[in-house]
Amino acid sequence: MSHNLMFQMSFLLQPSFSAGDFSLIVLAAVLVTIAARQLFRTRVMIWQIMVAGAVVVLLAGSISPAEALGAINVDVMLFLFGMFVVGVALEESGYLASFSYRLLRRARNVDQLVIAILFGAGFLSALLMNDTLAIVGTPLLIHIARKYEVSARLLLLSLAFGVTIGSVASPIGNPQNLLIAVGGGVPNPFVTFFRYLALPTAINLLLAYGVLRLLCGGEFGRQTLNHIQETVVDPDLALLSKLSLVVVMVLIAFKIVSVSLGFPSPLGLTEIALFSALPILLCSPRRLELVRKVDWRTLAFFASMFVLMESVWNSGHLQAAMNGSGFEATSIPVILATSAIASQLVSNVPFVALYLPLLSTLDSSVEAMMALAAGSTIAGNLTIIGAASNVIIVQNGEKRGTAITFTDFMKVGIPLTAANLLVYWIFLSLL
């Protein structure tokens, strides 16, 4: 290659904009591609698009390899791995299918089934964390959909909205709530979250049913559900799976008690997930098979997302927009709206990590802290990438033959998010 040609190419490759600008362009391209992939009937997966985005910003120098490695949240990756192992074991043993009978046998039609999913997932996500419910619940609901010949898409949307809304009302429902509870100096976190957020959260779960019934009415059908008990196919693995679930619940209960009493818990969510997976990894002769069946594509998605979002975060554009907005930072409607929008550009955890010190320095009220928790969490109902649980559900669903497009999700998510934010605004303003 001649020096002249090399010079011309280097000139063409010189960006006329900053690295931060380039990161935003790549993020926009990733979001547009994810949204449009079903429209053009491409076989490109969501995780492949996100991996490509991360590779592009790395090659362009928008983020260094060292920064990229540091951006990957190891705790989140290990938590997901541990819970994926438990989820795969529950599914492969047949225990998940068997348990579904006891869980949902009272539902006589699709309406009752959707309500049971919304409130069941909502309640459990407040205790077990929304990502855990997404991992375990996705294969369960796809199995139920096939068993009763109902819309798997409808059930997965119910699960996605249920775990997001339900997790708002607990300091351990999601990572950003835990960060607010600990870093925001919230007094008696479990009592405070319940007092301010439990009732509007219950109302929002009802609203989720109403919006789904209105916009997805054709998928509800009129058939009666005839429940049949299913047998466990691998009793030994089922026993280990149940033991893992017991470990999860015991460790989370210990964490709840520790936080409630004001003692720092020695166990983080990562340790809880890994300890829960140990009975399976140590005792099951099928351990290698189960590890191979872990949803590694979703893990690749998250690793790539951390890299891309870090490059956007490092651009400083979001921080500058927040500082120069001219709005009252402690105002409840401003917090709710900013949280919902900004959490689509970067994940809700780093957003909360930025906004929380701002509220603390301004000596904001408990209501403002609860608005930050509600807004950053309910942002997950807006788009697929708004919450990690959404990504887990969509990726796992697609892996099992059920696709939820970006537009499918937003068609329900936009009006539901608007209604959810309005409910929290009203309640937090009245208290």
Describe the structure.
The protein is mainly α and 431 residues long. The chain has one domain (19-430). The protein contains 21 helices and no strands.
Task: Give average pLDDT, whole number.
Answer: 81
- Computed CA radius of gyration, to the nearest angstrom: 22 Å
Instruction: Give the topology string: H per helix, E per strand.
Output: HHHHHHHHHHHHHHHHHHHHH
Which regions contain 5 or more consecutive residues with pLDDT less than 50? 5-16
N-end to C-end Cα span? 71 Å
Assembly category: single chain
Tally of extended strands? 0
Largest sheet: none
Content of β-strand: under 5%
Count of helical regions: 21
> Helical percent range?
over 70%
Global morphology? globular
Protein topology:
Layout: H1 3-13, H2 19-36, H3 46-59, H4 65-71, H5 74-93, H6 95-104, H7 110-128, H8 130-148, H9 152-167, H10 175-183, H11 189-215, H12 235-260, H13 269-283, H14 287-292, H15 296-315, H16 317-323, H17 332-345, H18 348-361, H19 366-378, H20 388-399, H21 406-430
Helix pairs in contact: 2-3, 2-15, 3-15, 4-15, 5-8, 5-12, 5-13, 7-8, 7-9, 7-11, 8-9, 8-20, 9-11, 9-20, 10-18, 11-19, 11-21, 12-13, 17-18, 17-19, 17-21, 18-19, 19-21
Gist of the model:
This protein has helices spanning 3-13, 19-36, 46-59, 65-71, 74-93, 95-104, 110-128, 130-148, 152-167, 175-183, 189-215, 235-260, 269-283, 287-292, 296-315, 317-323, 332-345, 348-361, 366-378, 388-399, 406-430. It has 431 residues and is mainly α.
Features:
431 residues, mainly alpha, 75% helix
